[in-house]
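Example (one chain per record):
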Amino acid sequence: MCVTDVGRVTALAADGGSAELAGGGPSRPVSLAVLVLEGVPVHVGDWVRVHTGLAVEVLGEGEALAALRAVRP
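Predicted structure:
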């Protein structure tokens, strides 16, 4: 079973390789390496799915909030 988390990007590193996330727990840093390699742009305010410290998918707000509700009723 894979466990993922969801958070909202609150800040981007100057090099664009990492971000700070809020939501779903304490603020935390995550790597954007997977999304950068896939050519997926990430902006402050975006919601992302995180697996083992790597942002792996940009989500729409509705999908992100539904994911948060599913694990934190």
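Caption: Helices lie at 33-38, 61-71.
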